[in-house]
Amino acid sequence: MEIRKDSKMNKGNKLLVIIDMQNDFIDGALGTKEAEEIVPKVVKYAENYDGYIVMTQDTHFDDYLSTLEGSKLPIPHCIINSEGWEICDELSYIERKSQMVFSKSGFGSSQLVEWIRLNTSITEVDIVGLCTDICVIVNTFAIKTFLPNITIRVHEDLCAGTTPENHKNAIEAMKVCQIDIV
To answer: What single string gives the DSSP state of each residue in the chain?
Structure first.
């Protein structure tokens, strides 16, 4: 995937990052009641967002169980081109109008961080999505690590973790690292 500055867009200094709002994390292999509950709220927030929008998409292959992640989480999920891999239908309109969808085979996306770095007008990043205690926290920390002067807001009520307790723990960890929790 080519990383480029999006020079034809003029959407100001704000960016919404929607993390892994995929069927397998909502009501599929790793779905939770809490994930299902945030979908309409994420859709409404994204529809009214005044700024850039990008998404991440967890992407695994048929050999997932033979990977390190697969050995520690032996539940096949987000296998490329499967229904579970797809962004949920409720967000398909937002997916089509987003500036970029970053496919990632691990928890974080270095391409996401590089895209933000190249779009130098961005000074504020809003983060929503799944799972708070895995991909949300990893991508948030990656942005904070490599772009420390950007304001980052994680929307607590627009994220869900693997469990409510793990969600809460991840939120607390991000607070300690100067991430704004809203």
So the answer is: ------TT---TTEEEEEE--BHHHHTSTT--HHHHHHHHHHHHHHHT--SEEEEEEE-B-TTGGGSHHHHHS-----BTTSTTTSBPGGGHHHHHHSSEEEEESSS--HHHHHHHHHSTT--EEEEEEE-IIIIIHHHHHHHHHH-TTSEEEEEEEEEE-SSHHHHHHHHHHHHHTTPEE-
Give mean pLDDT in consecutive 10-residue pieces for the chain, a chain of 182 residues. 44 92 98 98 96 96 96 97 97 89 95 95 97 98 97 98 98 97 98
Cα(174)–Cα(112) distance, rounded to whole angstroms?
Answer: 19
Report all structural domains of the chain as residue ranges with CATH numbers, in order of start. Answer: 14-181 (3.40.50.850)
pTM: 0.93
φ/ψ (deg, to 5) at 15? -135, 130
CB atoms within 10 A of CB 89: 10
